[in-house]
Each structure stands twice: as structure tokens, then as C-alpha cells.
Design a protein that fits this description.
Shape: globular
CATH class of the largest domain: Alpha Beta
CATH superfamily of the largest domain: Aldolase class I
Strand order of the largest sheet: 1-2-3-4-5-6-7-8-9
Radius of gyration: 23 Å
Helix content: 25-40%
CATH topology of the largest domain: TIM Barrel
Strand content: 15-25%
Length: 446
Amino acid sequence: MESKGLLSHDEAKPSSEESEPPGRMPDFAGMKRAESSVQQSSRSHVVFFNRPEKPRHAVQSTPRSFIISPRSRAFYKRFFPGITSAEWNDWQWQLCNRITDIKGLSRHIALSDRESKAFAHHGGMLPVSITPYYAGLLDGFDESQELRRTVVPVHDEFLRTPGESVDPLCEEADSPVPDIVHRYPDRVLFLVTGFCATNCRYCTRSRITGNDNNDSIMQESWDQALSYIASTPAVRDVLLSGGDPLTLPDESLEWLLERLRRIPHVEFIRIGTKVPVVLPQRITPTLLRVLKRFHPLWMSIHFTHPDELTPEVSQACNRLADAGIPLGSQTVLLSGVNDSVATMKALMHGLLRNRVRPYYLYQCDPIYGSAHFRTPVEKGLEIIRGLRGYTTGYAVPTFVIDAPGGGGKVPLLPDYVAGRDGDYVVIRNYAGDSYQYPDPDGTIGL
């Protein structure tokens, strides 16, 4: 049964471009088979859950009016001279041609000793995966460049420090069925895939990201997850994450959203993604038509640095906003990448210009091998102090630590309460000046 009031009669009609009726279960077993015939298939028929094989230079129907920045055009003409702009703008071409090994990466950047050593001792490490588009943003010679540090491995990933864990947030302990994390009373995290277009080196879920999933297991886990949500009336909010949900094909994503919308107590759905940043070509008119059918639908986008705010990303964000999807940002605080007030302010201002509301600033989770990324907690508080009052409140995210051990997100704020003076609470503003507020019955500040 559809949730009342969520879809109009016209909105519920499937698009003429849909390749699979939303009421039919995706062909999980056929998804890998489809990979081998991508050259002969139209875009709406190419489906896969696991990573596609490469190399492949096929192009489907030409996407409408995608921006290509001068930097991207110069990059693909240099490193992919045989392709057309239509191929570059095809999101499946981008996925099929991801950089996944030292040979591919060495074509684009001069690897440092620290980077080369990481590949030499690669066993068990989070796989490397970088879309050609995102590779075009990396500095080919400077290993300290901010974006390069987030996606190119270094030998520091093999260092283990106290407090680190493969699952620091203890998500598996709060997983009643496979791929569901139910930690908070009224919402669940649904890990719909283990695949990402580009792998961040500080990934909290490196234990699952990049792992291939058996199709029958994927189908079974989706069934169990949906059954759990349907049988748990307290769940009103479902966050789709992974991996990255927007790497799913349109028809699989539509099928999943359709099933969730049939659960009466699910009031709204969120998608956590980095795809608009690392694969903006994915935000196609067809995808937008799918997403628009399932409002209220929200999206949290993982941004790291202002250099990610390219013309392509701006277009992708504005397309999503025009489709009526509220956009929020989630940013991980990373040492040497974005750990300054100036960098964070530039990022937050850029997000607002692109209709993305800064939401969370995360202290980096203590995943194995993350010490070189983690800052002191005081650094996050320093950044919040440098934003609050010095720029619009809309540009100030909430600084949180996702408590190790499964405690959930804990917000941290600078100390703006200075104490009490009789019946007054003494507060301190952004500039450090003190003021008194009448509070005769209060105890705060005692």
C-alpha cells in the first residue's frame, strides 16, 4: 500500500524510458551478465551491482547538455585521446574506466615513494578506485595536494595506533539483519551496496567497501532488510548508504525506492552519496525523473574540499535541487586537507552557492590506518569558533564525533557559557565578549 499523500497519480506513472517495471524485482543474477554486453546495450538496460570489467570504450545514448570544464577537457584529451565528449560524459564509461591499480595510476601521476610503497604492500587494504573525472582534479606531481591525499594510498595506511578498529562505530553489533544498522529509535541505515565510484582512503566502512557481492546474497539481504523495515513500525526514516547507492542502475534504485514507499510508516528517505562529487555525470535526466517520484527524499553529499566544487559538480547539485531534493553536506575533518578555518569557510560558502546546506562536520573515525588523517578534537572546535559569528549561520555545520563503540553522533560546541553571576547566566559571544542573561530559576553555569 502506498503512503498516502506522498505521490500524485501522475507522479506514480512509470516513465516511458524505464526498462523495468518498478513492481518487478531487479534481475540480480543478470546484472553481472549485463556487464559483458555493455557495448550492445542501451544505457537503461545496463545493470550491475559489482564493479564492471575494464577497459571498455563503449558509449550509450548521448547525455543532454553536460558541462565539461576546461580542466576536464584537457585531461581526457591528453590521457584518453580516442574518446568523444559523449563518452566522457557517460557515467557508465566513467565507472568502467576507473583507475584501480598502480599501472593505471602511474599513467596520470608521478607516484612518490610513500605512495609506491603502499601499492607494494597492498594486501588486505581498501581497494583503490578513482573515476577518470576525479583523477583529472589531482595534481600529477605534488603528493601533498589535498584531493590527491584523499584517494591515493600511502604507506601510513598500514600503521596501527591505539583505539583504531575495523568497525569503530560497532555497526555490526547493531545489525538485526544483514545490511541494516538500527541504532537510533526511529531510523535505520540500509547498506544497499558495497560499491563506490571512488574510494576515500579514510573510509569508515572500508571493511565492506569495494568487496564484490554474490548476486543471490545481495537479493536475499535486500529482501531481509525490507522485511525488517516493514515489520518495525517505529522506523519512519530510512538512510540508504553503502558503498554508494547512486552507483546502482536507475531501475534497481527505482525498485528499491518503490518498495520503501509502499511501507506506510516510512515517512521519508535519505540517500548518502559522494557520486555528485566524484561522478557528476551520474546525475542524468532519467535519474532525476526516478528520484522525483519518491518525495520526501533528501540527500546528504560527502564533500571534502573547495577544489571539488567544479562546474560539473555545480551543475549536478543544481539539477538535484531543481528536482526538489533538499541537499545537505557531510564533511570529514582531515589533517592537512581541510583542517583550517579558511579552507572550511571556502568550502561552506561554495556549498551554499550551490544550494547545499552544510550539515555535519565529522571528526575522522578511528578506522585502521587513519592516524595520519585524524586531527586533535580541539581543531574541530577551533574551526567552529572561526565560523560562528564570522559568517552566516547557514554556513556553520554541526561538529560531531560518531562515538566509538556504537554511541552514535555526539555534537561538540565551543564553550559559550562563562558561568553565573547571581540571577544571571554569563554567556560569551563569538568575539569573546561577555554578556548577562536573566535566568533567576536556572542552574546552568553553576
